[in-house]
Structure formats: C-alpha cells, structure tokens
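Researcher: Structure for this, please.
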Amino acid sequence: MTSVMVAEDNDIIREHICRTVSSFEGFSAGQSVSSGTEAVRTFKSDPADLVLMDIEMEDARAGLDAAREILSFSPEAKIVFLTSHDDDEMIITAMATGAKDFIAKDSPADVLNDHLKAVRDGKPVLEDRVQNLVMKEYKRLSDSEQSLLYFIRHLSSLTRSEKELVGCFLSGMKTREIAARRCVEVVTVKSQVRTLLQKFGLSRTSEMVAKIRELKIGHLFQ
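Model: Predicted structure, token format:
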C-alpha cells in the first residue's frame, strides 16, 4: 500500500482529495496536513511514500518552500504538486524544487490516479504542457551556460580599454558621451566598438549589453 500525505489548507478540498486518493487501488491517504510547515514536520517524523502538495497555504509559496525543505533532508521523496496555480512561471518554479509532477486540481480522478501510479513506479508522466515548459527551460539554461562559457573565454582577449568600453555601455552611455569622456573622436569609439563586437561575434552593442545582463556578469566590466 502506497501511503500518501495530502497537504492542503482548505478543509473541504483536503478531505475530498483524501477520499479520492484512498479510493485508488493501492493508495492510502493516511496523513492530512493544512500547511507547508506541518507537512515538513510530519514528513520528518513519519515520511509518506508520496506527498500531494498544494502551493498556496499559510502563504503564497508555502508548498514550494516545504517541498524544497523536505527534499533537502530526503532527496528521494516523491512530491507531486496538486494546485490551481498553473501559470507557466509557477509550473517551472514548482518543478525546479525537484518535484516529480505537477497536476491541476480540476483534473479528473482517473488522470490523478494515472499520475500517482506513474510517480509511485518511478516513471512520472508529465502532461504535455508541463513537459514542454520543462524542456524549454532546460534548453534556455543550457543555452545560457554555453553563452556564459563563450563570454568568459573571450573576456581574456579584451584589452583594458575594451573592458572599460563595455562598462560604459552597461551604464547606459551613448557613443558620443563615451567619446567626450575619453576625449577622442566619435569615429575612434565606433572603430573600437566594431573590434569589440567582432570578438564577441555580435553585431550591435544592445545585443552585447542584453547578453551580459542576462548572464549577470556585469561586475566583470566594472
């Protein structure tokens, strides 16, 4: 029998979820808690095989915080978010905690049953939308890592003057302002910018600034 902890702050909804889960063959909702804090405390003393976790309980992110804490001391814990908060950002944030699945509260009972069985068996079946979002985020992070490595590699090839030039653009200065500050002609700055962009393989200073900010490495050009 797979034991399930249900963490949900609404008494009526929590009782309904417990009854539904207990009606599934091979599952028993033996633990029922109404807050993220209680979920962590209960799991520490009597870990369930699977946790059905709401997100917004004593505060808007209680379920997320509880999931992270549980997984910090029990990495093998199987946590499934069952929530009405299903915007893209929330799904990505929830799955980033290390949860096994993310299910909307209005999903039919048979869908919930199928997902719980899959998680129990170690073969979670994410809904298409959740899977696509997770893969998209994975690709974004992978691309960012490659970009970061690319920038770090080429950073060593920049002269001190070029690093200062990048810093000027990061601070919002325009080409004429940079020329005036350096007491040089605008054409000189433009020539330096062309060389700088060639080193990074970019065509516009705005692209360079956006990428550096995205990678959070602006401090390297101060």
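Researcher: Any notable elements?
Model: The chain has two domains: 2-126, 147-221. Residues 145 and 215 are 8 Å apart (CA to CA).
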